[in-house]
Amino acid sequence: MTNPSFFKSGLAIALFSVLTLAACSQGEAPAGHSSADRDAGHTSSSSGLPAGHIAAGEKLASVKGKATGQSCVDCHGDEGNAPIDPTYPKLAGQYHDYIAHSLQMYRDGDREHALMSSQAKDLNDQQIADLAAYFGSREKSQLRDLHGIH
Fold first, then answer.
1. Is-above-0.70 flag for pTM?
2. Where are the alpha helices (DSSP H) in the chain?
3. Is 46 within 8 Å of 95 (Cβ atoms)?
């Protein structure tokens, strides 16, 4: 004889597994994680931005912001690899979508930081895409985990 309780819990586990697999297997790799995307100059974005241009982002990274008088490289260092403060992240080699999403969140007020919120508030979508393409294209060997730095 079959135990109804065992059957119900087994069915629930099977249903959960099927739903989880279906949700996770939509056939699309996360944006910014494929080497083809990175090699193509970061032209696709999960953040809904236009294609970024590395050369434009490189120029923009040195432009002083109106709100703070600082540029990206003033705080994050040349090519985003040498922050002036150990709590500031290295941007070089980060996934372009991560940078783009972060800048959009700072700009839109969904993420708060005393300097970054005011730096990003005047950036348009193309500027964000360009900065993300530039910093994402830099050498990533110097990235470090900031978890638990405080």
1. no
2. 4-24, 35-39, 54-60, 72-76, 96-108, 116-120, 125-137
3. no
